[in-house]
Description:
InterPro entries: TatT, TatT_sf. By secondary structure, the chain is an all-alpha fold.
Amino acid sequence: MRQALTMVAVLLLAGCSALVDRATERFASDLETAIRGYSDPGVVADGLPAYLLLLEARINGAPEEPSLRLSAARLTGTYAALFADEDARYRRLNDRALQHARIGACAARTRLCELHRLDFDAFDARIDSLDPDDLDALYILATTWTGWIDANASDYRALGDLPRVERLLDWVAQQSPRHDDGAVWLYLAVLNSQRPPAAGGQPERARAYFERAREVSSGDNLLVNVLMADSYARLLFDRDLYVTLLEEVVSSDVQTPDYRLSNQVARARAADLLQQTEAIFD
């Protein structure tokens, strides 16, 4: 699942500024614009740690400030998915991101405190009691939690948290279908592409989520095709769909500024996956 989360994480880089406190709001907004419009992921990889350290310094001075915690959670998790090459480092970064997310979500909205400690019935009841003001903090908690589960996929206790994460993401999608440029639908699509029908999976639900993500982005987000090929088409062993989706990405001339970085990543990944076609399906 990590390869899929890595690609979704590119979109998450663009959604931090609304949760940063006033002292850093202008800088975060400028950073968001620069990241979305930059076509070289290597530059982002080199520059993002400096901003992470800046956030950590601000947190040391204001440890209970939810906006700082939530921004640190999101950026740390995104950096881990994109640039942590070693499994141990990937786990460490995701541990830190989830710690920030839990503290920040709880500080922002008391109903988001200790969700991971509730039994599922109590958890479900808590989610039913939420309101739209909980959405931003809840979404960061859910996406960060997803990254943490992926980083600890060898631990069955971590995998046991997946239904909770899916419940949170589904709540966000229902409350705000266009949230985070449709990335919420991509998370749901990937989560529903992990098991074949014979094992209780619901791939057609995953396909509907992918189509919803494409609709929200007006077709400008090429990651939708890449993730659909790599998750859904491979799950169903549908070679024709796999190749069609990826060839559309490679031949696309979409130049939408807000998707420049993510589409650069998508084209590179699509070309790599096309080269693997024979090995995957033959």
